[in-house]
Write a structure and sequence with these properties.
- 2 copies of one chain form a homodimer.
- Chain A has one domain: Orthogonal Bundle (Arc Repressor Mutant, subunit A), CATH 1.10.10.10.
- The longest helix of chain A is centred in the N-terminal third of the chain and has 21 residues.
- Chain A is mainly alpha-helical.
- In chain A, strands 1-3-2 form a 3-stranded antiparallel sheet.
- In chain A, strand 2 and strand 3 form a beta hairpin.
- Chain A is globular and about 45 Å long.
- Chain A binds a DNA duplex through helix 4.
Chain lengths: 133, 133
DNA sequence: ACTAAGTTATTGCAAATGCAATGAATAATC
DNA sequence: GATTATTCATTGCATTTGCAATAACTTAGT
């Protein structure tokens, strides 16, 4: 029965290989593109929240975000009330590139499930949603 | 519809965090435990095959296998016919530890799908198997 | 048989990773 | 209100990672 956990791991690693290769030219390899996508869709998360939302180590996430700020994709803002927090937003360059990231993710996703009927795709979506915590 | 690809990535990253933490004490962090499990179950793969079977970069896989040979978990053997190939087998220490690795994988898998009925688990297994070409 | 193309393991190197530790700010407890 | 515990961002450091390149070997094509 642990084919499930193995298959899921295999799909993730394969997908990451392809996506990192695709976005290296934009300086968004090493899963960096994920941060831009998530930040665009949910602006204002603080660093730890963003890290947790993508299940990546906080220190790794911190450094990736720094890099993305330096390269103009993201932007940080101190929280007004809680002085510990630094909230993350997309900068211009991040907003500009989002459509392309989004399109590629959709393309990858479509290809992944292309062997399934529409009904099976719906089933799979529902089953997986029950697994994430 | 790309919740599928996101959920799958989230599950993998979370599972890896937990498994690496669990097996660090054995020197099997950084996904090293995967190599021992797969080699035990399918002995005699050559290095590239093993790497491909777990969707991990060949150079990374090569170095991990080297480390596992040094630490006594795996063993390499030159192929008799094709002088390029080095085939991988578990060493004693690898065989000894396999039951524990296997049990943890089963435990993780069971916990992952614990929110699903038996029928849903079967469905999910079948759907995922269609995704991994 | 010879050459070209493809495959393998392996190494170099720069960059990424992640555990552990720190200091600052907030929340909880007494 | 003082103290303790928790949470946040950040840095240090050793290890890991993976792209690119190389050499040895095998296969395919002529």
């Amino acid at each position: 029965m642990f084919e499930i956990i193995r298959d899921i791991g295999a799909i993730t690693r394969q997908t990451e290989i392809e996506t990192n290769a695709e976005f290296r030219r934009l300086g968004l390899a090493n899963n960096a593109f994920i941060y831009v996508i998530r930040t665009y869709e949910k602006p204002g998360m603080f660093l730890g929240q963003l890290a947790d939302s993508v299940q990546i180590d906080r220190t790794t996430a911190f450094r990736t975000v720094q890099k993305l700020v330096d390269s103009g994709y993201l932007r940080l803002e101190d929280d007004a009330k809680d002085k510990r927090l630094r909230r993350v937003y997309v900068a211009q360059k991040g907003a500009d590139v989002y459509p392309e990231l989004h399109a590629f993710e959709k393309h990858s996703s479509d290809r992944l499930v292309s062997q399934l009927t529409a009904e099976e795709q719906t089933q799979l979506t529902q089953l997986l949603s029950k697994l994430v915590y």
